[in-house]
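Here is the promised in-class demo. Please do not try to memorize the tokens; focus on the logic of going from shape to residues.
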């Protein structure tokens, strides 16, 4: 029996430079897709997969993310007085049970591996999920839930993977694949951001992971890798052979909301999913696409 997975770490310390000036005074994870901030999508996905405890790895200028999950006392009183039930309902997912949200400051931007290592006290010996809120996944079943299912089957670590164009391997952690049944791929090795000509495959990790706490012992060495940063991929590579380790071709579609095109596409895709917006969006898209 595997230990139940109840914890998620959400790294949110990044500067969001690709969205300046929007992110000058606001965390990029607060940027909305339609009407919900990216961080809310990440929490909703985790909750839908049974996760109950959350740890945000923040940095300077990111405190509004913690405020976001606090009680908005005056606002809620006013809405109640005015009997605005729909607004109160819209607010509900942004409240988190007392004691279920922890936040740790990553004082220096030393890499994703270092950010995860900052959560070591929160994790202890427990298995945990990692959700990178920039990677927004639209799926019938929550992507992180699909990984948890695979973790329950294999008893080891699992990362979400997809095939990317070969010329993009230098943006991702890339698998050296072993046995592959078309869905689950055994991981023989992992390389962070290899050049296309050096990449062992084009199967790349997207921002969803389920890891056993063993990864912390490798992270604690704080060895620098690609880009001079402490890389999560390098620490995971050291787990190969120690525990079962697989890539899961998840069902769903990822939008890279860390870049402008991915973010804009996500707006359209998520708006088209909304019964209250879909017809209008379809209508104006027709106008624009007809005109260009
Ligand atoms: C990080 C990881 C990389 C992973 C990617 C997924 O890179 O280091 O292995 O493939 O997230 O989005 P970043 O996007 O932070 O450069």
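The designed amino acids, position by position:
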């Amino acid at each position: 029996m595997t230990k139940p997975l109840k914890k998620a770490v959400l790294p949110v310390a990044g500067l969001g430079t690709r969205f300046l000036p929007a992110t000058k005074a606001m965390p990029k994870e607060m940027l909305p897709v339609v009407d919900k901030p990216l961080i809310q999508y990440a929490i909703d996905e985790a909750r839908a997969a049974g996760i109950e405890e959350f740890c945000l790895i923040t940095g300077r200028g990111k405190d509004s993310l913690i405020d976001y999950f606090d009680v908005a006392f005056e606002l809620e009183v006013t809405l109640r007085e005015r009997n605005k039930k729909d607004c109160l309902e819209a607010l509900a997912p942004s409240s988190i049970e007392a004691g279920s949200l922890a936040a740790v400051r990553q004082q220096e931007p030393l890499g994703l591996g270092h950010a995860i290592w900052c959560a070591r006290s929160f994790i202890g010996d427990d298995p945990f999920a990692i959700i990178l809120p920039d990677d927004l996944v639209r799926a019938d079943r929550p992507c992180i839930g699909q990984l948890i299912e695979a973790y329950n089957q294999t008893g080891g670590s699992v990362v979400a993977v997809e095939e990317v164009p070969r010329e993009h391997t230098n943006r991702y952690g890339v698998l050296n694949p072993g046995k592959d049944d078309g869905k689950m791929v055994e991981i023989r090795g992992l390389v962070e951001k290899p050049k296309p000509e050096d990449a062992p495959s084009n199967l790349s990790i997207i921002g969803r992971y389920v890891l056993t706490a063993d990864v912390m012992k490798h992270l604690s060495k704080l060895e620098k890798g690609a880009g001079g940063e402490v890389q999560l991929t390098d620490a995971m590579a050291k787990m190969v052979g120690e525990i079962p380790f697989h890539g899961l071709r998840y069902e769903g579609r990822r939008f890279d909301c860390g870049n402008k095109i991915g973010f804009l596409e996500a707006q359209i895709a998520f708006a088209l999913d909304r019964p209250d917006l879909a017809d209008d969006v379809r209508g104006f898209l027709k106008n624009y696409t007809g005109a260009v």
